[in-house]
Amino acid sequence: MDEGRPASNPMSNTWTVARSASTRQHVEWVFDDGLPKLKFQDLVLKSSSRRKILYSIRNRLRQDRALVLLSKPHQGKVMEVVAQSPASSHFYYNGEYTRFSDWRFIFKARAGLLPLNGAPWKEGDKGCRRCSKADLETLAHVLNHCEGRSRCWQLRHDGIQNRVVHTAQHSAAQILSINKQVPGTNLRPDIIMKIDDVIHIIDITCPFENRIDGFEKAKHDRYAPLLEQFASQASRVEINPILVGAIGAWDPANDKFLLKIASRNYLKKMQKLCISDNIRWARDIYVEHVTGRRQFDEAEILRNPNFRPCEPVLDDPLDVPQCSTSATAMPV
Ligand SMILES: [Zn+2]
To answer: If you measure from the C-alpha of residue 168 to the centroid of ligand 1, how many angstroms do you get, rounded to a whole number?
Structure first.
């Protein structure tokens, strides 16, 4: 029982340690008819539930932290969409498919703490540093609207599209077209495929998730005229939007269609890959915006759509060395 005992007090024992631990955690001891009870906020833990004491206190602290996070005006906005699917936070515990540079970026991005000109605490010119179209340089503008980043958006979109095509190729689906203009219209759906006499028109988008409303609005029906066009070729025609947020929020509504071409197990993996792809793009677009230097090798990505740029060791404005001797980023 020596563990945790204050070294400065030679008279300490289990009770003195318990008392100082209770004071630290604001836990109160109450005796009712000689029987001890612990009081923590409005929780009362009797001796019969002694095995649950640590769980109960830890769980309450976790709930309190979540409430504080959601009550912050900006965090609440992004977390509302991120919380729609546990996949959006898949890398929190193990860093799977996530570079160190992405790790340094994503939490600040989701919490609205990146030092862009439009940040609430920034003084002076709030406008975009790269274009004249935005009076407020926000992350949504940088990732989805700023001029000069359109090539990145295209590659980001194509990355998700390639994953869907690859998955469909290993299923019973028959792919009818990929990014081809439908004759007689000016519409160019991402993918058209046929599964069991049903034609699916797939529309992939990477909106900047800020509110569930924004996510819902991205499910526009610009392909509605095609429903009639294909009606004679199948028993039914469906438009299936697939939304993967620009900072890695997964829309749970994607799953219904994707389960037609993927097993439940592979879908879980696919969600993680798509989310991490978009987080990588978000980081690379943000750093390119701030530094003016492209963060990826386009030729390499075109050669192999699954190519993942390795850990950047230079030009990471978010890499703040913890001490002067370890300034180099570690490879993945
Ligand atoms: Zn701009």
So the answer is: 36
The answer to whether the beta carbons of residues 214 and 207 sit under 8 Å apart is yes
Dihedral in degrees, nearest 10, Cα atoms 104, 107, 113, 114: 40
For tokens 């829309």, the residue is 251
Sorting pLDDT into bands at 50, 70 and 90, what band is 3?
low
- In the reported structure, the alpha carbon of residue 155 is separated from the centroid of ligand 1 by a whole-number distance in angstroms of 19
CA 103–ligand 1 middle distance (angstroms):
24
Q: Which CATH code for domain 76-305? A: 3.40.91
Q: Give residue 318's pLDDT band: very low, low, confident or very high (50, 70, 90).
A: confident
Beta bridge partners, 194, equal: 174, 199
Domain with CATH 3.40.91 in the chain: 76-305
The candidate with the shortest Cα–Cα distance to 204, out of 268, 136, 155, is 155
| Alpha carbon of 154 to ligand 1 centroid (Å) | 17
Distance 117 CA to ligand 1 centre (A): 11
CA trace torsion 163, 169, 173, 178 (10° rounding): 60
| 8 Å CB contact between 101 and 273 | no
Centroid of ligand 1 to alpha carbon of 128 (angstroms): 5
* Nearest of 251, 242, 154, 262 to residue 200 by alpha carbon: 242
Q: Do residues 188 and 332 touch, judged by C-beta distance below 8 A?
A: no
Residue 190, SS3? coil
Residue 218 is predicted with a pLDDT of 58
- 140 C-alpha vs ligand 1 centroid, how far in Å? 10
* pTM: predicted TM-score of the whole model, two decimal places: 0.74
Question: Ligand 1 mean position to 319 CA, how many Å?
Answer: 23
